[in-house]
Amino acid sequence: MTKRVYRWALPLVVSVGLVAAGAAGALAEDIKIAHVYGKTGPFEAYAKQSHTGLMMGLEYATDGTMEIDGRKIVVIEKDTQLKPDIGKAALAEAYGDDEVDIAVGPVSSGVALAMLPVAEEYEKLLIVEPAVADSITGGNWNRYIFRTSRNSSQDAIANAVALGQEGVSIATLAQDYAFGRDGVAAFREALEGTGAKLVFEEYAPTDTKDFTANAQRIFDALKDEPGRKFLFVIWAGGGNPISKIQAMEPDRFGVEIATGGNILAAMKAYKELPGMEGATYYYYEIPKNPVNDWLVSEHQKRFDAPPDFFTAGGMSAGIAIVDAIRKAGSTETEDLISAMEGMEFETPKGKMMFRAEDHQALQPMYHFKIRVDPDVAWGIPELVRELKIEDMNIPVRNQ
Questions:
Q1: Residue 236 CA: distances (Å) to CA of 80, 262, 292, 341
Q2: What pairs with residue 200 in β-bridges?
Q3: Which of 11, 224, 327, 378 could form a disulfide with 339 if both were Cys (CB 3.0 to 4.6 A apart)?
Q4: Which residue ranges does UniProt annotate as crossing the membrane (predicted)?
């Protein structure tokens, strides 16, 4: 299907009045979607990408009409400010006062965990994108939660494939909250049976700027281990631990730094690590499919830059919403749940599928190796191997 180009002005989308202009009499028929996410705060860059992707996903899936079966799509934005209590209140306001049909977000795993009970209370769907912690579709899950984002287990299993070999010793550095701790727990489990051993775990506050003490503890734990030694970093937002620890010359102790994918700005630090291996959720040059071709082409035209890590995730959420409403023939919650359990949909990464047991989107991941090009501002993750849905045994953690 040929996609029409529909150009939306991002700053104007927040105005419900603009979207609904001329349709006041049919306002009740509009499809209302709340994007509840951290527009301000440390993850602002992630949030902007996620919203751009969501709007492009809705556009792509509706052929530029921003309508489904004649019903206009209205997107309402709410800022969590990266605070769990504000996120919880904003979601309740969206469901209660704004009477939205579906909500999407948030950026932070900690905020997401606070929001999950609100979806259950109002019996309305929350599509989690891009928060990652396993507990979102694990121990804290309820049946009103679907997630297009990858989870910690998908990250962990993919990175265990990249790093886990006989005789390898690994230490981890992660942020001391749900994203980091769930990520390390899943990584530890994923390493079992690979021959590698996890010898040390280091956690640091999310606002850490000086990693000297953290790095020293890691070096002390690894320096006497035989064989190949890795420091695997799980980090989101600011702080830039990779560059700071690399400046401390970990190779003195035979320690190599490894990490997963990230946004392009963060991958500037990867230029210092040619040959580094890891696994990523998305990099715009890796997937080869019509959805990604459209995203890359249109994003480049509109923003003079390629789509980033969380742009692809937001687009996946937008496509999933449109496909689900069309399949259900309704925006009623129970109809949507029935339609979405087991639903397959095409995204910039290719096929995703909502697993019926926990509503986690199963999806491919990408084992990469960093290549440095002097003309590119970031380290380029070149594909080593695509890990398909069937290649990864992602645990169901809500039982």
A1: 17, 8, 24, 30
A2: 171
A3: 327
A4: none
Domain formed by 10-150+287-363, architecture: 3-Layer(aba) Sandwich (3.40)
Of the chain, the percentage scoring pLDDT greater than 70 comes to 93
Structure tokens at 399: 């039982």
Peptide bond into 274 cis (omega under 30): no
Report, at the CATH architecture level, how domain 153-280+366-391 is classified: 3-Layer(aba) Sandwich (3.40)
pLDDT in tens, 294-305: 999 999 999 999
Q: What is the pLDDT of residues 180-239, one digit of tens each?
A: 999 999 999 999 999 999 999 999 999 999 999 999 999 999 999 999 999 999 998 777
CA distance 372 to 381: 9
Q: Check whether the bond before 130 is cis (ω within 30° of 0).
A: yes
pTM of structure: 0.89
What is the C-alpha to C-alpha distance for residues 136 and 147, in angstroms, rounded to an integer? 9
Question: What confidence score (pLDDT) does residue 6 get?
Answer: 39
Please say if the pLDDT value at position 149 is more than 70. Answer: yes
Where in the chain do CATH 3.40.50.2300 domains reside?
10-150+287-363, 153-280+366-391
> How much is the average pLDDT of 258-271?
94
Q: How far apart are the first and last CA of the chain?
A: 40
**74 phi/psi in degrees, rounded to 5:** -115, 125
Partner residues linked to 278 by β-bridges: 368
